[in-house]
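Note to self: keep these together.
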Amino acid sequence: MAVPSRGRTSEILSSLPLHILLYVNGVYYIFYFLATLAMIIYKSQVFSYPDDFLAPDLAVLFLMAILEVPRLYLGFKGNLTEAEAPLGLSLGLTVGSVLLCVYLLLWQSYVLWADVLLNAVLLAAYGLESGLKVTAIAAFVS
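Structure:
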């Protein structure tokens, strides 16, 4: 006669698609940062880039890079530990990253087609990632 187990049955709730997207987004962001930095340097050499606007554009890019590290770390940690708080904080940092990305897309001094392409891909990845984060948080809470 089989004895039913008395403990909780553990069910894995972490999201594999979210984990893969976080990893791909981390790799893409390294490419994005280097390409955007190279384009800012290119634009400052080729075009008459106003010196007053070069520093804010670089500051936004570096602030975005600083924000990306805890955003990805909290996303990985929250997903793997099935905790809502780190995933929610990562979602909040994603909103900040989206705003900085929109600045680089719309209000940068010079916007090249490559800027538009790089930022569009990054915004699409942020959108997919945010949807998966909300889904994962809903699964963790229930």
